[in-house]
TrEMBL record:
Protein's job: Catalyzes the conversion of dihydroorotate to orotate with quinone as electron acceptor.
Cofactor(s) it depends on: FMN
The name this protein goes by in its record: Dihydroorotate dehydrogenase (quinone)
Native organism: Limnoglobus roseus
Domain Dihydroorotate dehydrogenase catalytic: 50-328
Presence of the UniProt keyword Membrane in the record: yes
Catalysed reaction, written as an equation: (S)-dihydroorotate + a quinone = orotate + a quinol
Length: 338
């Protein structure tokens, strides 16, 4: 394909510069419905999964953090994704952390970032989604967060405000309390705090499914307590996991994603599924880069998977390959084929 030829050029640029170029390109493509529909004819995979009234055309989604401002949903659909998670979006626009704040680790096929929830704000993103010329026929989720200048004691106000503004344009909403790049955010990953957050957001988003995204370091009894609190308060699904806390090449705290967290994320998925059983939507994300790692995440208990870092290394047609691989595997392991 074309991407192996483009990758050296993109990798010659700073990571965030290349990212912004990719987002601008996909945003432009997303505004051309005839082209997105034409490409989707070649990338689509029919391997549906239904949960809470939503039908996912296939099991592979785009993770939050790639399209923070909801500028390119149709382009992601055209690439073969079965769903997308936009954001993270905060109530008010914010610039995020100072640059540089994104780095590649090519030998380890990893990414480091300390973006800090840079986004256009809930009002702008909601207006943008309301004006879509073409809304692709797959679930669109929106990840919500708090502004960095909002103290944790008032976090539920921010999450509720963002949820209320964005829910009319979302098929599901995700509470993100697990980014390592907003100071103090992960302190909200307690049973007491999460019960309040989930309840506050649940109240304002109507019947939209509500998910919660956790850090890979949250485990054991603490994880179980938080899961129980979230599900009791009205969450119906979990995304596992966010990036792993790490140190950037500049010596500052950041998040690490990609191949190095593959095992850790899969372990959390397995742990969560064992605790919650069936009936809870579980989306596995972290280090998925090929059909083998996708299958292992599903075997660990994930209903759906998401990718981000591997998209940087493998290119825009990775989701179609993963979706088709999972479909072939499901057919080959079905009872009728045994």
């Amino acid at each position: 394909m074309l991407y192996p030829l483009l990758r050296p050029l993109l990798f010659s640029l700073k990571a965030e510069t290349a990212h912004n170029l990719a987002i601008r390109s996909t945003a432009l493509f997303s505004r051309m419905p005839p082209l997105t529909k034409f490409l989707h004819h070649f990338t689509r995979t029919h391997h549906p999964f239904t949960f809470a009234g939503l039908t996912f055309p296939n099991r592979v989604g785009l993770a939050g953090g790639m399209d923070k401002n909801g500028v390119a949903p149709a382009a992601w659909w055209a690439c073969g994704f079965g769903f997308v998670e936009l954001g993270t979006v905060t109530p008010r626009p914010q610039n995020g952390n100072d640059q540089p704040r994104m780095w590649r680790d090519v030998p380890r096929r990893a990414l480091f970032n300390r973006m800090g929830f840079n986004n256009d704000g809930a009002d702008v993103v909601a207006a943008r989604l309301a004006m879509l010329k073409f809304r692709p026929p797959f679930p669109i989720g929106i990840s919500i967060g708090k502004n960095k200048d909002t103290p944790n004691e008032r976090a539920e106000d921010d999450y509720a405000e963002a949820g209320e503004k964005l829910a009319p344009h979302a098929d599901f909403v995700t509470i993100n309390v697990s980014s390592p790049n907003t100071v103090g955010l992960r302190a909200l990953q307690t049973a007491e705090a999460m019960a309040k957050l989930v309840s506050a957001v649940r109240t304002v988003i109507g019947g939209k499914p509500l998910l919660v995204k956790f850090a890979p370091e949250l485990t054991g009894d603490e994880l179980k307590a938080v899961l129980d609190a979230c599900l009791t308060a009205g969450a119906v699904g979990v995304i596992a996991t966010n990036t792993k806390a790490a140190t950037s090449p500049t010596g500052l705290p950041c998040g690490e994603s990609g191949r190095p967290i593959q095992d850790l994320s899969r372990q959390r998925v397995e742990e969560i599924r064992k605790h919650v059983g069936g009936g809870v939507l579980l989306i596995g994300v972290g280090g998925i880069e090929d059909e083998k790692s996708a299958a292992r995440m599903v075997d660990a208990g994930a209903d759906l998977i998401q990718v981000y870092s591997a998209l940087v290394y493998e290119g825009p047609f990775l989701p179609a390959r993963l979706a088709r691989g999972l479909k072939r595997r499901a057919v080959n392991t079905s009872p009728d084929r045994r």
